[in-house]
């Protein structure tokens, strides 16, 4: 196989391991975005939203963001990030790390507004706080979804890379020089 082509390939086992890890973290982000709801079953903000539950969303979002950042960092330190596919994967990981880091502050803002809501007597201020909570919470969930999509795109890039490797495998076997015929016992050749 062409040495340049060989250098541009990420070993199959490494790619499969990273795909598995990307899918696991992607699923965590997606599940959190789906599960962490602010609105009740009627689509309204509860009269007394739970500050502790909303703060827990922020804490968990920060943990997820840290996991994405560590994944990006580990890949950036691997030799695979210098391949064409690796550069694209790293771009998706960097995007996911950046986007996921925005979720926790929005969840924290939601929790802070939930804490202020019961003390707000003015209906206009209460309406403003309620709307702010809905916007912040929805934004935080959107950041988690978008980070999940970036991880999905990174996994797809690696999966496509493995497809190219499968395509190249039969071609590389044909490039090898033919093996000399096995020698016959006694050293006689016909």
How would you describe what is shown here?
This protein has 6 helices and no strands. The mean pLDDT is 87. Helix 2 runs antiparallel to helix 3 and helix 2 runs antiparallel to helix 6. By secondary structure, it is mostly helical.
Span between N and C termini?
A: 33 Å
The amount of helix comes to over 70%
Low-confidence stretches: none
Approximate shape: rod-shaped
Helix and strand sequence: HHHHHH
Question: What profile does the largest beta sheet have?
Answer: none
Please tally the helical runs, counting DSSP H or I stretches of 4 or more residues. 6
Question: Helix- and strand-based class?
Answer: mainly alpha
Task: Please provide a brief summary of the model.
The chain has 190 residues and is mainly α.
Please give a handful of descriptors for the protein shown.
190 residues, mainly alpha, 74% helix
How would the blueprint of this fold be written?
Blueprint: H1 3-7, H2 12-35, H3 51-77, H4 84-101, H5 103-116, H6 123-175
Helix pairs in contact: 2-3, 2-6, 3-4, 3-5, 4-6, 5-6
